[in-house]
Amino acid sequence: MTRKRENVSLLQQLTNKSSIVAWEYNLESICYQLERELYQLNRTNAEVVLLKGNPSLLDLFQKYSSAILEKQIQLNIFIIKDSTIKGYDILRSGSNQLMDEYIVQHPDLTIDKIL
User: Fold this and answer.
1) Inter-residue contact 60 to 88 (CB < 8 Å)
2) Strand pairing partners for 89?
3) Residue 7 has pLDDT above 90, yes or no
4) What was the pLDDT predicted at 114?
5) Distance (Å, rounded) from C-alpha 15 to C-alpha 24?
6) Coil, strand, or helix at residue 97?
7) pTM (2 d.p.)
8) What would the pLDDT profile of 14-27 be if each residue is shown by its tens digit?
9) DSSP 65
10) What's the pLDDT at 6?
11) What are the residues whose beta carbons fall under 8 Å from the beta carbon of 68, sequence distance 6 or more?
12) For residue 86, what is the enclosing H or E element?
């Protein structure tokens, strides 16, 4: 007779639900995805990245990832906290001039610089 394995699957470790129909990644996994995307953007000609994301995700990102990224990438990272979205969106990536124009065109937004 064989013993039934009781280990938690990789899917269950990375997601909040084990349902295959609707995967909902936990904040650490989303934070890691964001970090990987920023590494990829660092290889382009972009100088600035503007992120829009959930406040709890961005706070976790600032707490754990920003110190590591500060040493390894040359991007300036700006954030907009928005509690209506679950993850994050990259709104803009490009030159410093593009970011300055965006800030002037959207004075109603609270844009913070984290790196």
Assistant:
1) no
2) 52
3) no
4) 87
5) 5
6) helix
7) 0.75
8) 666 544 445 578 88
9) T
10) 63
11) 35
12) none
